[in-house]
Design a protein that fits this description.
Number of domains: 2
Shape: elongated
Largest sheet: 9 strands, mixed
Distance between the termini: 72 Å
CATH architecture of the largest domain: 3-Layer(aba) Sandwich
CATH superfamily of the largest domain: Vaccinia Virus protein VP39
Number of strands: 16
Radius of gyration: 23 Å
Strand content: 25-35%
Structural class: alpha/beta
CATH topology of the largest domain: Rossmann fold
Length: about 350
């Protein structure tokens, strides 16, 4: 007979479900701020996410814009995954999985993500969960992602059940993609770092597929939302995404070079740009000219006290540019993870 042990709560209020809010590394403090006042209790903050309790259920987490994914978390005091097939553990796991399935997502199948997921133990677990939940096991395309891993603290194992068929960062409005496109949650972070106010006149230089514009529109009203790009195909892509988000009428798109934009000087309170990193888009040689030129162009377009948020992976280059910069004042530097890179977002302010 298998040894019996119980699902455990590491901290927080016993009996209240725990959830793991996954974010891009570096964005956990911003995600915690997004949850402030929501009634969600943050139990632990890690570089790549938050462990939380949501007393009113997962609906409290459904609208998180900085999360890449949200998981129901179960912690088991067991020595190895085989013990998840034990009576108490399996009932807890299957019950939680049924709750996730019933929560509103369309899950035609589930898949396991774990070290050794093709082992006999995990094959038995998959077959047992399929029987208990009525949802088929699909190792490749299962929408309900079930992650099994060693506990991050202490002994035992954790099981994470993703609450949505797709990651939250896979926005429904994104109908067009471009090479080097910006992760939507990182766009939210950049806009939040810049600050969001209804009276802002907002400009997105080199807007690409429009991610920063769409996410700023979704953050609330603005006096003006303008995006420009020198690439007509990029603007067409941005237009499609803005339309899908219901934001097209609220935004103005310009076919123009960011360094010579046909816009009134001093007309914008917030300016953002995801600068080319020199790999998928642009070149390192061109960036040596582009980075200081963007600062100069932004200074011409910025109103007094304007905020400028730039994202770049050319860290040495940009630090050297900032050392020579006399117009913009650095207020904040945020290191983030994005597609295997670790770019920095810089908040600059014009006096």
């Amino acid at each position: 007979m298998r040894p019996r042990s119980r699902a455990t709560v590491e901290c927080g209020v016993a009996g209240v479900p725990e959830f793991e809010v996954e974010v891009l590394e570096g964005l956990a403090p911003l995600a915690a701020a997004e949850l402030a006042g929501s009634g969600v209790r943050v139990l632990a903050e890690r570089p790549d996410g938050l462990l939380v309790q949501a007393p009113a259920g997962p609906g409290m987490l459904a609208g998180l814009r900085l999360a890449t994914a949200v998981y129901r978390r179960l912690a088991f005091e067991v020595p190895r995954p085989r013990a998840l097939l034990g009576d108490a553990q399996f009932r807890a796991l299957a019950g939680a999985m049924r709750e996730v399935i019933a929560s509103g997502g369309t899950f035609r199948g589930f898949r396991l993500a774990a070290a050794g997921s093709d082992s006999p133990v995990f094959k038995r677990l998959a077959a047992a969960l399929a029987e208990a939940t009525g949802v088929a096991f699909d190792a490749v395309e299962g929408e309900l992602l079930v992650r099994v891993r060693k506990a991050r603290t202490g002994n035992g194992w954790e099981v994470l059940l993703r609450l949505t068929p797709r990651p939250l960062s896979a926005r429904t409005w994104r109908v067009c993609n471009r090479p080097g496109g910006l992760n939507a949650t990182l766009a939210v972070a950049m806009n939040r770092v810049a600050g969001v106010a209804a009276g802002d006149r907002y400009l997105n230089l080199m807007c690409g597929s429009g991610t920063l514009l769409v996410e700023r529109f979704l953050d609330g009203p603005a006096r003006a939302l303008v995006g420009l790009d020198a690439d007509a195909e990029a603007l067409a892509c941005a237009r499609a995404n803005l339309e899908a988000a219901g934001a097209l009428e609220a935004c103005r798109l310009l076919h123009a070079d960011a360094l010579a934009a046909p816009l009134e000087g001093g007309a914008f309170d917030v300016i953002t740009a995801d600068l080319p990193w020199g790999d998928a888009v642009g070149s390192h040689e061109r960036n040596r000219e582009l980075h200081p030129a963007v600062l100069a162009a932004a200074a011409r377009l910025a109103a007094p006290g304007a905020r400028l948020v730039l994202l770049t992976h050319e860290l040495r280059l940009f630090r050297a540019v900032l050392e020579r910069e006399r117009r913009w004042r650095l207020e904040r530097e945020l290191k983030v993870a994005h597609g295997g890179h670790f770019p920095h977002a810089y908040l600059l302010r014009l006096p």
